[in-house]
Amino acid sequence: MSTIFSKIVSGEIPAYKVAESIDYLAFLDISPLAKGHVLVIPKKETDYIFDINDDEYMGMWVFAKIVAQGVKNVFPCRKVGIAVVGLEVAHAHIHLIPLNEVDDMNFARPKLSLSNDEMTKIAEDIREAISEVTNS
């Protein structure tokens, strides 16, 4: 069964994309815990992250590291936190969330509601920062 993330990969559903490679995609979470909350997914639909073959799994983390550097450059924070929950969508994904306090990664907190213009600007800024990271 095709997940919402697979539909984003195929272009059936729009997303605020921040980075893309042949195998991976990073886009803004539409219900973010913080500005700059990004999801990193493998394009190949796999429900459980530990079912991904080793090379693809390692590649996904390298891709996530590059995206996290871009996020941190746009949203100065103490760290970019990582969470792998995987219960809400049956497609492996990594949450990258700018953190200043431990509670910034509390998924029970109310989510932000950002306008289309804000989301578009955040995605553009992160894309630009990632480009700077990868070209330096």
Automatic annotation (TrEMBL):
Recorded GO MF terms: catalytic activity
GO biological process terms on file: nucleotide metabolic process
Active site (UniProt): H93 (tele-amp-histidine intermediate)
UniProt motif Histidine triad motif: location: 91-95
Gene3D superfamilies assigned to the protein according to its UniProt record, in alphabetical order: HIT-like
Domain of life per record: Bacteria
Domain HIT, first and last residues per copy: 4-107
PANTHER family in the record: ADENOSINE 5'-MONOPHOSPHORAMIDASE HNT1, HIT FAMILY PROTEIN 1
Protein name stated in the entry: HIT family protein
Organism of provenance: Sphingobacterium corticibacterium
